[in-house]
Structure formats: C-alpha cells, structure tokens
Design goal:
Radius of gyration: 18 Å
CATH topology: Rossmann fold
Number of strands: 7
Low-confidence stretches: none
Largest sheet: 7 strands, mixed
Strand content: 15-25%
Strand order of the largest sheet: 3-2-1-4-5-7-6
CATH architecture: 3-Layer(aba) Sandwich
Bound molecules: S-adenosylmethionine
C-alpha cells in the first residue's frame, strides 16, 4: 500500500501535533515502538486495498483527523470530516481534525452528527473508525433484541445510503463484543474497562448494512499486539489473537450498483 502516502501523513501529523489520543493499552507497547510506527500499522491494516485516488470521502467521527489526512495524502479529491464531539470522544483530540483542516483546504469539517448531516453529495468512500457503535449507543446495546433499537440503526443506515455513491466503499472498525477473555473484566490488560454491551460483532453491522445494498468485501481482525512493529502486525492480526485481546475488527463493504440492489427491511433476529 502507498508507503509514500503513509510517510507523508505521519510527517504532517507530527508537524501539526495531532497525535496524543492513543489508549493506555496501545501505549503499553511504547517502550518498543513509537506512535508513528503504531499509526503506520493502523493505516496499513485499515486501508489495505482501498484506492483513494480522485475519490470523495466522508470521515464520520474524524477525531484527531489522521484518517482524513491520510485520505488526502493518498490522492482523495475532497474530504468531509464529521466531528460533533459526541459519544466516544472522551480522551480524543477532537480539535485535531480542525487543526488539520486549517492547513489542508480539501478537508471540510462539519460539527454535526451523521444523523443530522445533510448533503446533496454522494461520497465514494466512507470511513467509520471506532464510531459505528457510538452513533446511537443505547440502540447498539439492544440491537439484537429490541425492534425499536434495530429500527433506529436502520434509519441511520438508510440516511448513510442516501449519502453514498453507487460502488461506494465503507470502512468500519469496532471491537466485537465476542471476546474469549471478557469474563476477566478489568483484569484483562489488553482491554481494561471496556463497556462490552455497546459493541457488536462485524456480522451484525454487515447484516444491517446489507439492507442498504452494501456487500461484505472483507472482514479483517486486529489486536493491540498487532501494533508491536511489523512482526507483531504479521503474527497477531488474526481472529484468534484478536478474540483473546481487544477483539478489533475491520469490516470493508462495497455498495452494489442501484440496478443490482434489493433494498429491504430486516428484523433484529435475522
Ligand atoms: C472513539 S472516537 C473515534 C475517533 C476517530 N475515528 C478515531 O478512530 O480515532 C468516536 C468518535 O465518534 C464521534 N461521534 C459520536 N457520535 C457521532 C455521530 N452521531 N455522528 C458522527 N460522529 C459521532 C465522536 O465525536 C468521536 O470523535
């Protein structure tokens, strides 16, 4: 993947001083590898196989702006970064994306939640890194059991569907609530005090989004240990290690062309 784009992103991020919102679990590996190395690995795992050239990008819950910045460096035409400082923004440098946008004119920051964001644009790539479950945390909790919660996400994804182009790609990350060491609670050093009920497995999100015409391209797994340099990335980015540590997944979905879509409703028990 674009090593030049990653290097450029890291150089600009350092210059603009937007780093600084890593979790303590990630910092656990810091004596061995610095923030830049860990960010490099995150970018590689996240965007492998995604071509940003001449694309328009919606970065939902843009945080410190590093992913919008990468999109620019990888050749995107224009980025709209939504950052409402909403749920999940504790400890996140949400001003980072504003600092980035002051220096990069192709990034526009909008302080609205996705649900309220109105646009006539249809984006080619949507980035939702660690944000999908925060869009409506209460609904995430009961997504599989409560039809109302289920409908709330159907509505959000219906709106997202209106904002995406034919053939659009969506990159989603979250932690699955399925974790082999979940019973350890706070005693698990890779996880700490994670609020598991506000997370869902990738298949749950994929099923909901399939009703908006999105089809799964890939589900990849990552763990805190993936950030232990290139060897860590190679050895520990798999389903088993992920389920024993942080349960991080990367879900890549592509939108089918409108002629091929069968948009429909789903029910929680699907
Ligand atoms: C855990 S942070 C992730 C930030 C960034 N994407 C990253 O990976 O570093 C969750 C982000 O989602 C944003 N957020 C919460 N609710 C949102 C909503 N309804 N629409 C858009 N963004 C939202 C928060 O403001 C926060 O920045």
């Amino acid at each position: 993947m674009g090593t030049d784009a990653i290097n450029q992103t890291l150089g600009l991020a350092q210059k603009l001083n937007i780093f600084g919102d890593e979790s303590w679990q990630e910092r656990l590996v810091s004596p061995l590898f610095d923030t830049e190395t860990r960010t490099e690995i995150k970018l590689e795992l996240l965007f492998e196989g995604i071509d940003f050239t001449d694309q328009t990008v919606l970065d939902v819950g843009a945080g410190n702006g590093i992913y919008s910045l990468f999109a620019v460096c990888a050749g995107a035409d224009r980025i709209v970064a939504l950052e409402p400082a909403g749920d999940g923004s504790n400890g996140i440098n949400v001003n980072g994306v504003r600092t980035v946008a002051e220096s990069v004119e192709t990034i526009e920051v909008v302080s609205e939640p996705l649900q309220n964001f109105k646009s006539n644009e249809q984006f080619d790539i949507v980035i939702m890194r660690n944000v999908i479950n925060h869009l409506d945390e209460d609904a995430t909790r009961d997504l599989l059991t409560d039809p109302t919660a289920h409908q709330r996400y159907q509505d959000i994804f219906g709106h997202l569907g209106d904002l995406t182009a034919d053939d659009a790609t969506i990159v989603i990350t979250d932690s699955s609530r399925n974790n082999y060491l979940r019973f350890l609670g706070e005693r698990n050093p890779f996880i700490g005090s994670r609020d598991w009920p506000i997370h869902q497995a990738p298949e749950v999100w994929a099923t909901l989004l399939s009703h908006q015409g999105f089809a799964v391209r890939d589900i990849r797994w990552r763990s805190t240990l993936s950030l232990l340099g290139p060897v860590g990335k190679r050895l520990f980015s798999n389903r088993l290690v992920s389920h024993l540590t942080s349960s991080n997944f990367i879900l890549i979905m592509d939108r089918m062309r409108s002629d091929d879509r069968m948009i429909g409703e789903s029910s929680p028990d699907e």
